[in-house]
Description:
homodimer, alpha+beta, Arc Repressor Mutant, subunit A, Dna Ligase, domain 1, 2 domains, three-stranded mixed sheet, two-stranded antiparallel sheet, DNA-binding
Amino acid sequence: MTKQQQIIRRLLEQSETHPTAEELYWEAKKEMPNISMGTVYRNLGQMAEEGSIVRLHFPGQPDHYDKTIHPHDHAICVKCGAISDVELSSLKSMIEDTLSVDILSYELNIQCVCNACQSKAS
Amino acid sequence: MTKQQQIIRRLLEQSETHPTAEELYWEAKKEMPNISMGTVYRNLGQMAEEGSIVRLHFPGQPDHYDKTIHPHDHAICVKCGAISDVELSSLKSMIEDTLSVDILSYELNIQCVCNACQSKAS
DNA sequence: ACAGAAATGAGAATCATTCCTAAAGAGGTG
DNA sequence: CACCTCTTTAGGAATGATTCTCATTTCTGT
């Protein structure tokens, strides 16, 4: 495991949000000024592939990465862009009960107005 | 409504799959050889925005378009790429019951091995 | 210390999608 | 029909996230 990998992994682990590759890149750059975007993308890609992190896809914006690999879903606020974790515990079994196919994975993304923005807007 | 719009709309309506913009473009080109990609994208984008069609997002591939606007979800086969409609009728209310926020929309995409590919693989 | 394997940095390449602009088209009015 | 205005189009350039390439650097095992 290289120094770059350690930094990327630690930064994601420490993050309370669901950062993009670019956000992690700028953070990493503070510790290792000549780290490259390619390295950040490559490592995040590998970690996602091996399952030690999760890659999140939201329409019209760059992918985000999630340190939490325990199955859960996400809601994104259309006003502030904040992404929050959502627990829909029975969803997986509900899908499996409904469909008669092998489910490999699924991604549920909810567009909402978060509580903070909801209060402000009033 | 222009001729281009009519063609795009009709082709999507006739389609049994969930075509991409490019697939619709090549189909449209058979009827109107100098229609442009920009026109296809622009019209699909407008229709999706006004809600008369639905835009589907799958990781790592171009967006697909769905003529069916009735709320439903999608499963994509990781072997053949086929996209099928899935009815999970109680999902919306389940999400709304669980979260205490205004849900504007959501997208659930399931990765699976479809029945056809499952049979073949045995 | 040294050979071979793996990872990096820098930047080029890719590819879906959007944007730009001059030209063409549609609609309304007299 | 002729004129004007607003909208849409075709074609191509621009964008932006991501991946790829490859020469160089770093790691690993002996």
